[in-house]
């Protein structure tokens, strides 16, 4: 397969004829006209009433358990029979979510003649999941691979971390970065975004002019307040770690004894019960406090495609690679728009809106 490079994106030569299986960019994926943010940006959630807090905390605990599969190091102690059952289940799961490596031709054939845009999560995708979130470093080989890809494809990282933190981990100027699950996007300057109330001109670390899009900017004082409250409320829980990701707050319980997860859930609800404009989401051994706005990683993908000049283009193929529940919003946008591929990184079977899978970051 021949690769032809230009300054904007890579085009795979010898385009295949259009047919029913050819992927198209749906106009329904691109709701942005560059004028104003939709009034539907802000969501409405029921007020937390006194007397139902424990029920909410119990529901939170259920979500914590369901979104946190056992660590591999604990599974290694299982007996051979259970290990065999797990392997069988994973192989059966691969029929629904085939390996992206084994399906390389199936992915690249529809990409012929199209420009590919690559979107990547960070934790669990470019770096392994580790006990200490401050030590989630990507390998030099992974950094070199991402740098090489970015020479040919427009590439962006969309992470739940703060944008500054994920840039500190990655350190590549060739990429576009979106932190706080897409609530803090740094992208190329486009005149069509100048009228966005939440879009401002700024400069990156190299002094280059960029656009900053921050749809939850008014929540910053509230997020800082909640962060400090959560620090105080969880400081006596051994192993708990609270991380300020600028537009959201993460409470990590990976190193908390499972018998204390109930305490974590209750303490988090003790704080957010007073903030009806904030909501909880769940990831891999992490509870996140986020603003109640109609924004997620899927909408961040849509926004970045337009920022990169790749919206409303039938010759664009977006690919998103991620491992967490929050990445499902991006997978869903690509699946429902019939416009690209989601690739789930997971070593355990689980339902997803992705089309393909990879077992771990190394793959």
Automatic annotation (TrEMBL):
UniProt-listed Enzyme Commission number(s): 3.1.3.12
GO biological process, one term: trehalose biosynthetic process
GO molecular function, one term: trehalose-phosphatase activity
Xref: CDD domains: HAD_TPP (cd01627)
One Pfam family recorded for the sequence: Trehalose_PPase
Pathway the protein acts in: Glycan biosynthesis; trehalose biosynthesis
Signal peptide: none
Record keywords: Hydrolase, Stress response
Catalytic activity: alpha,alpha-trehalose 6-phosphate + H2O = alpha,alpha-trehalose + phosphate
Cofactor: a divalent metal cation
Family according to the record: Belongs to the trehalose phosphatase family.
Function: Removes the phosphate from trehalose 6-phosphate to produce free trehalose. Trehalose accumulation in plant may improve abiotic stress tolerance.
Protein name: Trehalose 6-phosphate phosphatase
Organism listed in the record: Gossypium raimondii
